[in-house]
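Need residues for this backbone.
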């Protein structure tokens, strides 16, 4: 399903772009756009996705690629395609059906009541809760530190409910927000704010640096007190040196796991014998989130022993037995599990081809080459380094071909499954259990040396350079995402950074995009992914900037839409995209972000709000003509209104205004702006015509939608523009005959314009 973004008619793809970035690695204030929007009340909680099927070969998905010019030079394609659902971990990745949403829900914005209830259902306070609540009440801000899995997320929300109250709004801010931004931010009185998995510095060494940090924290604290708001920050980073004195930094400890399980099961009215078995089976050092999930499954009827087996936090017995066998595993066996860890669900022939390449690279790691005779050795010939072979000596028998299939059949971790593809059946290689993959990767990381991982890096590099098909690309990306849980720096330094720089061409860049999109589906990696892509967006390297634009236009943008809008604007406005192709990629990224949010049923109005904010600001400040920033906002708006859905080819804006009728006035305001700017008017008229004609296909009440759009346009267009719009749109519709539809939404929209115009003329 390919989405096509055409350069809008009349859009000026050249032009200079002025503006600078703000200090401290953040875009200037003007680039931050409109105020943050909370999730729309129309959006329900994300459904529980199906359990992952690691054995399944992922279906193709293409990242947004660099624009490719067609023969006519008029079509530019953005590839951000989903050919069916993708599953990774517990997250759903792909196109949603009518009853489900694709991807992970946005991680910032307003926390609604359902989300709060889900977090605090049967909540058990840890011993450190009371001290944290006192400090939050006293200073207005507190920082909770500690590793993943200690319950900091639910603890932060519980602290706000305790301090601020249960009936007010809680707002989740970006994990990438800096102290300087917090110190300059306008807060709403009586509102609770939370920053989850903060990626900024939470403490520094004592001395000059520590004093500076304490000064920044004092500014944040004073700003919150000024507005009467409260803020809780969570982070996994450990504080080094002296603690800042202005803001308390508290080590968060998990609650009693026995109490967590008992509370949830008693609330579900689970029989006492099941409760006792569930409490007795809690694994040691199990994360709170895992305990809560296992308790939910037990409350729903799952057997306690099976639930804890799935959430034990330790490698399954099969992996322990395989890696802990008395006889050391052979190179071939190591190559088998490594190949499957990065390429599950492929056929035998492809699997064996990949395995052969990996074995050749691993051989120097596990075998010492035989000694080459020295020149003085009696066995040496006159040629240094070559042994003498008696031509009369009988040659050894030729070795039999390596029987890899028999070796695979003996590997307890690996099996095969038969998949049906249309009228054909295909045998694919998979792990014996879907959960084995991540444990195998963890065992490989902990038990094998750097030389092994260097060989794996060269192997994956060779696979990428060979241009793997999209299914294999997704397999590799999901494998690297799982490895990122264990060794994030290894994944970034050995794979993501080089690929994002273009060292493996477009395929490598696409793979870097896939990995980061997969990471966004995991709460534990999303914040780190955001920080990494932000550094790419700030880079002077053009390939890094281009990769960052692509990542922000997809799942990362759906997870952190406000950050995506901020950085897409900062990159375009900075003027660093001086080449035509780079600039078009930046414009396409805005359009693609809007399409992604519409597809994910998230609040795509965040994109429209940001553009309207800049256009309004331009109108308040400009003298006679638009500035470069104003022209850029107008051009982006036209690209957004031109982007089409992947399967149907209909404008995404048509879907947006029918799914969210309250956004029609905002859409009309933006359309009026580009209609009144004559260089873009032709493209704006064309986009309006296509949108009106698409309404019968996207809503059951197209008449109301068309009339609503017509009335909204009348309310924002200058009076002199209304008859011009009617005449030009009528001529354009006559020249572009389309298949007759019932009702004719173009005529209905024009009729709404006429009625209001006539009423004004009287």
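Answer:
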């Amino acid at each position: 399903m390919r989405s096509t973004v055409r350069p809008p008619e009349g859009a000026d793809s050249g032009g200079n772009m002025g503006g600078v970035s703000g200090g401290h690695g953040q875009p200037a204030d003007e680039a931050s756009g409109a105020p943050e929007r909370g999730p729309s009340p129309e959006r329900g909680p994300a459904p529980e996705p199906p359990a992952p099927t690691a054995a399944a070969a992922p279906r193709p998905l293409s990242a947004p690629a660099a624009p490719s010019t067609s023969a006519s030079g008029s079509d530019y394609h953005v590839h951000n395609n989903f050919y069916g659902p993708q599953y990774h971990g517990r997250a759903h990745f792909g196109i949603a059906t009518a009853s489900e949403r694709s991807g992970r829900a946005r991680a910032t914005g307003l926390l609604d009541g359902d989300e709060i209830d889900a977090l605090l259902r049967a909540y058990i306070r840890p011993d450190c809760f009371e001290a944290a609540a006192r400090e939050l009440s006293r200073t207005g801000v507190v920082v909770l530190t500690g590793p993943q899995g200690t319950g900091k997320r639910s603890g932060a929300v519980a602290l706000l409910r305790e301090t601020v109250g249960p009936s007010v709004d809680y707002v989740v801010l970006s994990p990438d927000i800096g102290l300087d931004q917090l110190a300059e931010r306008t807060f709403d009185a009586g509102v609770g704010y939370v920053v989850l998995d903060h990626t900024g510095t939470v403490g520094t060494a004592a001395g000059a640096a520590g004093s500076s940090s304490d000064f920044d924290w004092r500014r944040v604290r004073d700003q919150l007190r000024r507005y009467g708001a409260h803020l809780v920050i969570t982070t996994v980073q450990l504080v080094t040196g002296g603690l800042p004195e202005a803001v308390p930094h508290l080590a968060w400890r998990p609650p009693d796991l026995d109490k967590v399980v008992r509370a949830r099961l008693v609330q579900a009215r689970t029989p006492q014998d099941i409760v006792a078995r569930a409490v007795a089976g809690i694994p040691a050092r199990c994360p709170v989130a895992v305990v809560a999930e296992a308790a939910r499954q037990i409350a729903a009827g799952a057997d306690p022993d099976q639930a804890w087996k799935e959430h034990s936090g330790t490698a399954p017995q099969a992996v322990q037995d395989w890696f802990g066998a008395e006889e050391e595993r052979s190179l071939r066996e190591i190559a088998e599990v490594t190949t499957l860890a990065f390429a599950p669900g492929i056929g035998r022939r492809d699997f064996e081809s990949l395995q052969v390449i990996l074995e050749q690279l691993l051989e120097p790691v596990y075998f010492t080459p035989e000694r080459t005779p020295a020149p003085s050795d009696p066995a040496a010939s006159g040629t240094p380094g070559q042994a003498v072979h008696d031509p009369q000596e009988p040659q050894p028998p030729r070795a039999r071909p390596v029987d890899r299939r028999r070796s695979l059949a003996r590997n307890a971790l690996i099996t095969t499954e038969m998949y049906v593809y249309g009228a054909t059946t295909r045998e694919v290689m998979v792990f014996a259990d879907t959960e084995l993959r991540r444990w195998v990767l963890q065992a490989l990381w902990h038990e094998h040396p750097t030389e092994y991982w260097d060989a794996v890096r060269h192997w994956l590099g060779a696979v990428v350079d060979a241009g793997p098909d999209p299914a294999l690309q997704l397999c590799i990306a999901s494998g690297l995402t799982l490895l990122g849980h264990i060794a994030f720096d290894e994944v970034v330094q050995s794979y993501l950074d080089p690929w994002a720089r273009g060292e493996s061409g477009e395929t490598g860049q696409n793979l870097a995009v896939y990995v980061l999109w997969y990471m966004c589906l995991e709460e534990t990696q999303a914040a780190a992914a955001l920080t990494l892509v932000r550094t790419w967006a700030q880079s002077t390297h053009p390939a890094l900037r281009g990769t960052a634009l692509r990542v922000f236009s997809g799942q990362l943008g759906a997870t952190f839409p406000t950050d995506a809008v901020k950085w897409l604007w900062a990159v375009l406005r900075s003027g660093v995209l001086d080449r035509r192709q780079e600039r078009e990629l930046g414009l396409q990224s805005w359009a693609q972000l809007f399409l992604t949010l519409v597809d994910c049923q998230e609040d795509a109005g965040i994109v429209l709000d940001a553009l309207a904010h800049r256009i309004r600001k331009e109108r308040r400040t400009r003298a006679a003509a638009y500035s470069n920033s104003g022209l850029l906002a107008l051009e982006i708006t036209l690209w957004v209104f031109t982007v089409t859905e992947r399967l149907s080819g209909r404008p995404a804006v048509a879907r947006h205004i029918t799914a969210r009728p309250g956004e029609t006035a905002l859409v009309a305001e933006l359309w009026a702006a580009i209609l009144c700017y004559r260089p873009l008017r032709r493209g704006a008229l064309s986009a309006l015509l296509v949108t009106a004609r698409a309404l019968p296909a996207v809503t059951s009440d197209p008449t109301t939608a068309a009339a609503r759009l017509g009335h909204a346009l009348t309310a924002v267009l200058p009076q002199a523009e209304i008859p011009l719009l009617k005449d030009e749109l009528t001529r354009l519709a006559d020249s572009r005959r389309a298949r007759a539809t019932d009702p004719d939404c173009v005529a209905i929209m024009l009729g709404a314009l006429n009625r209001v115009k006539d009423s004004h003329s009287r």
